[in-house]
Specification:
The protein has 328 residues and is an alpha/beta fold. It is 35% helix and 19% strand. The strands form two sheets. Strands 1-2-4-3-5-6-7-10-9-8 form a ten-stranded mixed β-sheet, sandwiched between helices. Strands 11-12 form a two-stranded parallel ribbon.
């Protein structure tokens, strides 16, 4: 009995020590719970009837960049923010994320309406709602207005092109994943022809569509980084080719890549303007279908969580974008 009681006392002592250690860890001054996604209401007139979510890391200083991340069809703000890796990188590198969310009343598949004339023009519809979210976020977190970036997957990629064209003064760069050129649905005659076949336009015609979205604007224009799976049968690879034509033309660059190499084993190209600035960058993800490239894990270049339309291909698009934009 004596040995049993002694053993019991020892176990109690160990448990008490562990409990004290745990309490000390959680009560240490300066320790805070991890930030969480928050919905923001009243961010403007919201003509596109979208919802605004945001992620602000705890203790984020003022003057930090802002990334706008647009989900794909059938997705939502929370799932895309986590799956793509953007929330993980926001904590790692210190920036805030705005996550617009489509509503079923606007689109039954929760796609952003990148192809609707009333949603892709400056001052109207969903494009205007997203612009209002940017203004609200910059005001609330005292963000760096010169370092705002926009990115998205699929329909979110199409809407990324819309924001780059209609509100170029708000964005330093755009990242389009399995997306489409600005005005593609109008050029092709239908969003589905655009997605599955592409539109027949010269670089000049593609560029003119962007310039018409912001008449009189002389720049600077956002830079473009695009990712496209070669086995994508939902948004065909021709769309990245057309995005390259469109945005090299907007930037006054030629159609010949200045850099052609590989990143994580995938073909990668960079196009520079006359001043030598990289203005268009492309990643052709060999064998990848329709989705966001991620590379789950804890490595310094890894991010994201695989899921529906979020594909583990050993390359995290969000990380590559963040490096290109100087976020980390």
């Amino acid at each position: 009995m004596t040995q049993t009681r002694a053993a019991s006392r020892n176990r109690l002592t160990v448990l008490a020590t562990l409990l004290v250690a745990l309490l000390a860890a959680f009560l240490t001054p300066g320790r805070a719970e991890a930030a969480s996604l928050q919905e923001v209401t009243g961010f403007g007139t919201n003509p596109g009837a979208l919802r605004m979510f945001r992620y602000v890391p705890d203790g984020l200083p003022t003057g930090r960049p802002v990334v706008v991340a647009l989900h794909g069809c059938t997705q939502n703000a929370s799932g895309y923010g986590t799956g793509s890796g953007w929330l993980q990188l926001a904590d790692r590198w210190g920036f805030s994320v705005v996550l617009p969310q489509q509503q079923a009343a606007n689109n039954a598949s929760s796609c952003f309406d990148w192809f609707q004339s009333g949603d892709m023009q400056r001052g109207q519809g969903e494009a205007a709602s997203i612009a209002q979210m940017v203004d609200r976020q910059l005001a609330d977190v005292t963000g760096d207005a010169s370092r705002v970036y926009v990115t998205g997957l699929s329909a979110g990629g199409g809407m990324t092109a819309v924001m780059m064209a209609a509100y170029p003064e708000k964005f330093a760069g755009g990242g389009i994943v399995a997306g489409l050129p600005y005005g593609c649905a109008q050029a092709a005659g239908s969003p589905y022809v655009c997605m599955y076949v592409g539109a027949t336009q010269t670089p000049q015609q593609w560029g003119d569509r962007v310039r018409a979205a912001r008449p009189g604007y002389t720049g600077p224009w956002p830079t473009l980084t695009a990712f496209q799976g070669t086995a994508d049968y939902t948004v065909k690879p021709v769309n990245m080719t057309d995005l390259t034509k469109q945005w090299t033309n907007v930037h006054g660059a030629d159609q010949t890549a200045d850099v052609s190499d590989t990143v994580a084993g995938y073909p990668h190209q960079v196009f520079r303007d006359a001043g030598g600035k990289a203005v268009v960058e492309t990643y052709s993800v060999t064998g990848m279908g329709h989705g966001q490239p991620v590379d789950p894990g804890s490595g310094s270049e890894q991010c994201g969580t695989a899921g529906a339309y979020v594909l583990d291909v050993n390359l995290c698009a969000a990380h590559r974008l963040g490096r290109t934009w100087g976020l980390g």
